Here is the input.
Amino acid sequence: MQKELLQYTLRLGDNALILGQRLGEWCGHGPVLEQDIALSNIALDQLGQARMLLQYAAEIKGGDYTEDKLAFHRDITEYHNLLLLELENGDWAKTIARQFLFDTFNYFQYSALLESKDDTIRAIAQKAIKEITYHAQWSAEWVIRLGDGTEESHKRMKDAINDLWEWTGEMFMADEIDTKMLEAGIGADLGNIKTLWDEKVAQILAMATLKLPTDDWAQTGGKQGEHTEYMGFLLAEMQHLPRMYPEAQW
Here is the structure.
């Protein structure tokens, strides 16, 4: 069970780490100062959650592993984040769409993890849920604002949702690790989360005057360590300094 717990914790931690890295790329480039700061703060929230989860993963793994070693010194196939989160930011609408689709999932996931039988995961969920609730509200409000805004903003948000839709199915595909963690009372029920996610996403898109995509084909592989070409470039930038100076203390 320790092996499955490690993989499950890494998945949670890598989701937060990789999304935080992507959002950090917006720092200084947001459309207005207020939203630049808001997105930078969300990136910091993600990195804070990643630290807690990777620290726990290091404890499970044992030896000389640390949160920094797990964050910066793994090869690409050893990361287990969702593919959606490693995609390039694109324009503001695409970043908002990705954030909304994941935030909605993450809110229901961490709401379920509040009842986890693993004390550490439950404690992390209790600490993170307020941030995640804000993230979900913020991104949903922006989807509505852009979707029900100008002709240009409506088109950009529509295109972003349609382009990213094929990357959302992976969030709900339970493999052996997900199943074992659920059976042990540690992990979240992805089937139940899918139902809640479908309802919330449909509600927000309707308010944004956007049509819900109907294609159910999904890109998969991230949770198993198979990634897109974007991941290699992301890791090259993220890992550059730690790999150049592996003994440095940040």
In short: The chain has one domain: 2-244. Residues 2-244 form a domain with the Ferritin fold (CATH 1.20.1260.10). The chain has a mean pLDDT of 95. The chain has nine helices and no strands.
